[in-house]
Amino acid sequence: MTQPTPNPPAPSADSPDELALASANRHGPLPPPRDFAAYNRVLSSAADRILTMAEQEQRMTLKLRWADWIAQYTALIMGRLFLYLLVLSAVYLVLQDKPVEALFAGLAPIVAAIYSTVIAARDPGAHTKDDNEVKH
Questions:
Q1: For helices 46-95 and 33-42, what crossing angle results, to 10°?
Q2: SS3 per residue for the chain
């Protein structure tokens, strides 16, 4: 013998017919202006502390971007200097009647340039960073 399933309760005037979902997204360390004033009501120095934190984060982000730029520029300069050194050494070896050594010394920068061009063509965004993304 099976028992009948009970009927669900009838909705009352107090029970909601729909469920609403609200969400807010924000980016950055500062809260929206209406919430910012509420922080000061809870703790008198909260707004100043939040602003100080945001300023420190901005300074650190700029320092990291500057250091990254310096490192990339230094690597570029060092790579070019090495390339010129290899080419000059190939010319020197030709002048010293060492054609085989000059060939290898001259081929090294050509192969490196072709290799870097092929890698850059294969994945053009591999060596660029998104300005908004900084790793701490």
A1: 120
A2: CCCCCCCCCCCCCCCCCCCCCCCCCCCCCCCCHHHHHHHHHHCCCHHHHHHHHHHHHHHHHHHHHHHHHHHHHHHHHHHHHHHHHHHHHHHHHHHCCCHHHHHHHHHHHHHHHHHHHHHHHHCCCCCCCCCCCCCC
Q: Are 29 and 57 in contact (CB under 8 A)?
A: yes
- In 3D space, the residue among 31, 34, 29, 33 whose CA is nearest the CA of residue 55 turns out to be 29
**CA 34 to CA 53: how far, in whole Å?**
19
For residue range 64-114, what is the model confidence (pLDDT) as tens digits?
999 999 999 998 898 888 888 888 888 888 899 988 888 888 888 888 878
pLDDT tens per residue across span 37-66: 888 888 888 888 988 998 999 999 999 999
Place of tokens 């070019």: 80
Is residue 132 within 8 A of residue 60, CB to CB? The reply is no
